[in-house]
Amino acid sequence: MKYFLQRLAFYLFTAWAAITINFFIPRLIPGDPVMALINKNRGQIDSHAIASLYILFGLNKHQSLWDQYTAYLAKLAHGDLGISFSNFPTPVSTILANALPWTICLAGAATIISFALGTFLGVLSGWLRGSRLDFVLPVTTFISSIPAFWLGLLTVATVIAVGSTFPVSGGYDPGLIPHADTTFIGSAIEHSWLPLGMLVITTMSGWILSMRNMMVTVGSEDYITVAQAKGLSDRRVMFSYAARNALLPNVSGFSLAIGQILGSTVLVEIVFNYPGIGYEMLQAVGSTDYPLMQGVFLCITLAVLVANLLADIAYLILDPRTRKEG
């Protein structure tokens, strides 16, 4: 319990530090978002309302940076992420509520598929070491060394070059309205294949490598020799004895992968114009939209922190040594 409370306190402090950095860094970016909004809506915004807009967006020039910071923390405590500059007057929370499900589904599906497929191939490669399956590891390692967004750009260029009708942009067909019906769901799945594939093949090698190494280590244990001496089938020994014990490090590292794959997902969404938080972040940076940038960064930061906290809890449950003092 003491270990858990120490880790929780550490992550709470890290979250506060991330929120603080999240507030100050966007304000160091050159440009005036309020003036950009006024120029964008020329003739629709009264020039006398400029001061009110600065106050509304938390950029009151008569307030010190510290006062703006404390006001930001107070709003954040009530779940108020502010109003988007580029989508005025839409609240940031509304934009994120529409974008987050796309990112969660894409990153979640990629993590699960990558974990399951990589772990399975790692089990086979480790148990049948020296066979042709060992060729899978260097191939996947080479592919994973290529950034997902760069591989995505190459894929888009290839698909367009061959004249394929496969969708390479957007999250669904134009003209469709997001709704829980078969037409929309089918279109969304079709548009997700390319970004999902990029994420899976660039993150799978880590699972294969770690699982293969653990299978090689576990394969030399005495209980494996005893299981084989009892006449159990090779398949049962491989999955029920070796893989079951070799899987523990991968399970504890699963939550860490969620945070790691989220960074790649953001870049892949930008490449494929996928309607997730990565695409919204690109729009926010381009329009100097402070509140939207802060909202996106906050979601990413909290996701990584929660993933790491879950990893610590998993270690605490799976490895009794972490529960011992000294």
From TrEMBL:
Subcellular location: Cell membrane; Membrane
Domain ABC transmembrane type-1: 100-311
Topology in the lipid bilayer: Multi-pass membrane protein
SUPFAM superfamilies: MetI-like
Keywords: Membrane, Transmembrane, Transmembrane helix, Transport
Keyword Transport annotated: yes
Cross-referenced Pfam families: BPD_transp_1 (PF00528)
Highest taxon of the lineage: Bacteria
Membrane spanning residue stretches: 9-29, 99-123, 135-162, 192-210, 246-272, 292-318
Family per record: Belongs to the binding-protein-dependent transport system permease family.
Name under which the protein is recorded: ABC transporter permease
Organism from which the protein derives: Streptacidiphilus cavernicola
